[in-house]
Amino acid sequence: MSAYLLLKTLHILSSTILFGLGAGSAYYALRAWRTGKVEVIAVTFRHLVFADWAFTTTTAIFQPLSGLGLVLLAGWPPHQSWLMWSFGLYVLAGMCWLPVVWLQIRVRNMADRALEEGTAMPMKATVYMRWWFGLAWPAFFSFMAIFYLMVAKPT
Question: N vs C: which end of the chain shows fewer Cβ within 10 Å?
Fold first, then answer.
């Protein structure tokens, strides 16, 4: 297998993990939140925060590096519009993801505290979840557009 095909395979697998984990995390976070049960929210958000650091962070770092490697190996001019759009959308998604991680950590901490104290989730957690939900959409659509650009490579 050539270096290009190996890197392309790793790039695709990494993007699949990144996108799939994001979609799965959103699904489980919303399902947990909608139960209203502090125990469920606490356990789910503990797992989400760990998964973000262990998997999302590593793939988020690998994606631009492997993408740059593919550009260099393929000999593509790096200023092609589809590459520039992909990079810009990736930055947008990252700018949405970083506050989402912060919000998830805060919700996890609030849930752990509420569970420990035997209280309900504080109202601030609801505000955080609304921001979390709102930030998820631009990131989701950015990744959908990036997938299209990577496959179609429009000129």
Answer: C
Structural domain spans, the chain:
3-152
Q: pLDDT per residue over 72-98, tens digit each?
A: 999 999 999 999 999 999 999 999 999
The residue assigned the tokens 């990036």 is 146
Sign, Cα dihedral of 78, 83, 88, 92 = negative
Contact by Cβ (8 Å): 45, 108: yes
For residue 77 the two structure tokens come to 């001019």
Torsion of CA 18, 141, 108, 124, to 10 degrees: 170
Show Cβ contacts of residue 70 under 8 Å, excluding neighbours closer than 6 positions: 4, 7, 8, 11
C-alpha–C-alpha distance, residues 29 and 146, integer Å: 24
Distance CA 150, CA 153 (A): 6
In 10 A of CB 42, how many CB atoms?
22
pLDDT at 19: 94
Q: What is the pTM of this model?
A: 0.90
